[in-house]
TrEMBL record:
Protein EC: 7.1.1.1
Keyword terms: Cell inner membrane, Cell membrane, Membrane, NAD, NADP, Translocase, Transmembrane, Transmembrane helix
Highest classification ranks of the organism: Bacteria, Bacillati, Actinomycetota, Actinomycetes, Mycobacteriales
Identification of the protein by name: NAD(P) transhydrogenase subunit beta
Enzyme class: translocase
Amino acid sequence: MSYAVDILYIAAFALFIYGLSGLTGPKTAVRGNWIAATGMGIAVVATLLSVWNGWHEKGQSAPVINWILIAVGLIVGVALGIPPALKTKMTAMPQLVAMFNGVGGGTVALIAWVEFIESKGFTHVDTDPGQPDVHIIVGSLFAAIIGSVSFWGSLVAFAKLQEILNKKVEKAFVKNAKLFQLANIVLMIVCIAVAIYIGVSSSNTAPTSMIWIVLLLVAAGIMGLFVVFPIGGADMPVVISLLNAMTGLSAAAAGLALNNTAMIVAGMIVGASGTILTNLMAKAMNRSIPAIIFGAFGSGGEAGAAGPGGDQGPVKATSASDAAIQMAYANQVIVVPGYGLAVAQAQHAVKDMASILESKGVPVKYAIHPVAGRMPGHMNVLLAEADVAYDAMKEMDDINDEFSRTDVTIVIGANDVTNPAARNDPSSPIHGMPILNVDQSKSVIVLKRGMSSGYAGIENPLFFQPTTSMLFGDAKKSVDSVIEELKQL
């Protein structure tokens, strides 16, 4: 039976990796997800067989209550997981990702806790209580700390993205970031000290040990809250990616403690990919990961409070008719999508507009900034949903040189990633962050509801430059109006 379990695990790992390779493009992403999901299903079956085989080798049968609890857990998980995955709108997908990631981290923390209870101080039930197994100690304690941090941190990320937190309260968190940093240092020391005490303590009584493990989980949970509370919305895509990596690493550590190969491999895949993505996104913002975690940037502050024109001069409004004429006779049109596109659900309308322009001989490309939207790949997913050709989506490094040769660039809800202050203003909080060179286009049309600042809370000089026109209103309605005008040309 053990050989059959090993074969199933190998098959599951192969499907994990093959499915992950399918996520490199929108055409194969759905298939890749199904393949990886099939692999996870096989891994679950293999784990259940492994549990059954373990009891069978002891000449015992697994308690019926165990199988009942497993069945209930599977049913509850399916019932809670499928509906939000089906009904959640694309605008709320980052929140769903944050929530699902948090559930994963919380699960790992609970697994570490259960393993502690079962082994009475992280020792095998089959071994001498006075001889703790080192890999179980280290794996379980690491999983408990990181899993708890990931769970509670993901809840805060969800609350920020869902805008559940009161804005004044959120700004107060950011304003007092240094206090949170000091508290996190203290909490980290507490976690490490408690973990070391649990690992080396000769006391192995269940009540005493239970108090210490609960203290560890609580301290790690508070640290998870305090880590994310002072981080502003502009950094949420990086934070989500980092928390995802942490969940993967904690799952791998729990797998090491449980000697579960599936958890080790799956956890390492998630941890490694999440770490790579976090590093790439941090580089895209020209910031280090410690600066993101401890910098408290992107608070949605007061910088953008000025009304239209502010102290930077007047803004120039345009109409759907003028925008249509400019685009119809352009040598090339570049579309820059942002979170406003997601909120307005304008991706299908933008695709229709692009199709009309292309039928008139005007090439249309899409400029994708690595941190546009609220999660990694947010804009790619939105555009793929509207059947935008993958080849038309250009990464920042591939398209930045084309802006200066482009007649019209249309910006839909993208603010911070098009802000030339990142390049020109050393005093700007985002100075040094690579941006899309939209301001170098011959003409820029910005679709916005009003003159509010972006998620970073700072004004965008792009809106006030002479070559920029503002098309105010709901993005989808504005694009629909442009489409009607294009049809008349």
